[in-house]
Amino acid sequence: MRATFRMDIATNYTVAQMLHPHDDSHAYRFCPRCGGPLERRVVKASEPERLVCSACGFVFYLDPKIAVGTIIRSESGRLVLVRRAIEPGYGKWVFPGGYVDRGEPLTLAAVREAREECGLDIRLDALVNIYSYAGRAPVIVVYAATVLGGTLLVDDESLEAAEIETSAIPWNDLAFRSTSEALRAYLNGVRHPIPS
Length: 196
Prior knowledge:
The protein is of the alpha+beta class. It contains 3 helices and 10 strands. The protein is elongated and about 60 Å long. It starts with a helix and ends in a 9-residue tail after the last helix.
């Protein structure tokens, strides 16, 4: 049983690696508790199908993944964008952002991601909006921010970082729907107080 269980975990990991990181609902085939096969079942009539272990009955809930992004205005009034060096969206432009770690406050994650992705220290000014889409795992929380210091640079997830005039935003070369929608909202003056 132990050897089979280890092989099942390896199979889960291999399948998860092959799929797009935002679409992992079909990546799980075996129970994380006992190694039994997972199958889709309706647990409650009012809810969608869930993954349920056919051996022990464990319900494996697939929760959303929380990401943060920051639309950063530089001292010159331009917006900071980075060009992605990873999939999804390789070679496309986004504002700095990334996933929130378990237990990490959203605002601290936004500041951390800005520092990691483009080398800038920022002040969060407002919440622009929160984006989620049917059938997609990420929930994206986007903030408006101002540069406080640092030096614009790239990390290993970016090909390029740039300050871009609002009139020169590469609308047809943005990585994600949320990137485009958040930038449009920001340029239209959408700002909400940051919940404390």
